[in-house]
Amino acid sequence: MPAALPFDRTTRLVARGLGISGGDLLAGLRPATPADLASVIALRNSERGGPALWDDEAYLPWRYRLGRREAGFGDLWLVEIEGELLAMVGTEDMSCTLNGKHLDGLHTMDLLIHPKARSAGLGAWLNQAMFERGEFVVAVGANDNSRGIVQRLFEPLTPMRTYTHPMVSRTFVNRPGLGAWPLVPLTGCIDLTMKAWRRTARWFASSRLDVRPLERFSDDTLQTRCDSPAFRSEPTDLNRRLFDNPRVNYRAVGAYEGTKRVGHLAWRIGTHPQRGRELTVADLRAGGPNRPAIIGTLLLRALTEAAALQCAAVRLLLQERGLERLLMRYGFFHPRRQVTHIVGLHARDPTLQAALLAAPWAMTECVDDNDGF
């Protein structure tokens, strides 16, 4: 990875490209407030070519603090020069305990640069500005405009991969103009094989678990892996993320051993333009010595729900290493040709960065800034 310029030098270069001083550029960086919503939404709409399919007026105050102490998951940072909004980047608070030490970090998202300012390097500068505000910063996913920034400024973590369990295989081969009718007998055999696979997989799940629906999280925080960096998982934060999301409705179940919650599963139902209805797992967490069996039990619950709703597939976005064999046991595969989400890490302290790079990260779709859309 090529070495990035120091932040103070990047500040001078970007400011020169914008025709202002470095001090003016730094002074123009600030967290958004409710008064900024109109200009933020206008910039987002101009980038998309029109209003989005969701309601930014509801989504942005849900996602970001906007000056309110107990609201949102992080701050939306703006670069405003002479009253004009030139760029923004969102952050979400992250925390973890590593080697007995509590660390506070950030996850960056929603990077957006006004077309007139893109050539000045504001995207890289904004990411470096966030490096100054957390002990570590994580970037998840990238588009064509931001991929180079992530690759240049962040060290790579294990990428996030989508694992798929086909429920109706013909929907995966039936494409317009493909003429898939000769494959119909084959897909029927595949569907029967997958059904038998699901029945066999029940032998590996735990029969001691009580899996029941969750309307809200109200019990203690689930302890998963003590050495794994984690997003906020207190009941208040999980409720806000999964049940108060204005974009999408999630459903969730908890796995209990007696009265103790040892895992949970959250999912959403969406519609693929070619394949039809699909179930997507948004969050999957499990803890304790019986963790593989708990994960398996929750995956079987997702498959049961998908079958009842006649879904074509179940999808699972995961970043954790070492789960491939377990997922394959329950019929989840990652096609080699499938695009992965790149994940990057930056820490100011090289020793901390090395320790975080070696830590067993376990991210799910909840970290993705599409928030279920």
Number of strands: 13
Number of helices: 12
Fraction of residues in H or I helices: 25-40%
Using the alpha-carbon principal axes, give the shape. Answer: globular
Structural class estimated from helices and strands: alpha+beta
- The helix/strand series, from N terminus to C terminus, equals HHEHHEEEHEHEHHEEHEEEHEHEH
Largest sheet: 13 strands, mixed
Between the first and last Cα atoms, what is the distance in angstroms? 32 Å
- Poorly predicted ranges: 176-181
Give the averaged pLDDT, no decimals: 84
Strand content of the residues, in percent?
Answer: 25-35%
Q: Report Rg.
A: 22 Å
Written description of the protein model:
The chain is of the alpha+beta class and 373 residues long. It contains 12 helices and 13 strands. It has helices spanning 7-18, 22-27, 37-48, 56-63, 122-131, 147-153, 170-173, 184-201, 235-242, 291-308, 324-329, 350-358; strands at 29-31, 76-81, 84-98, 101-113, 136-140, 155-166, 210-213, 230-231, 251-257, 260-272, 276-286, 313-318, 341-347. The longest helix is centred in the middle third of the chain and has 18 residues, at 184-201. 35% of the residues are buried.
What's this model, at a glance?
The chain contains twelve helices and 13 strands. It has 373 residues and is of the alpha+beta class.
Keywords summarizing the entry:
373 residues, alpha+beta, 12 helices, globular
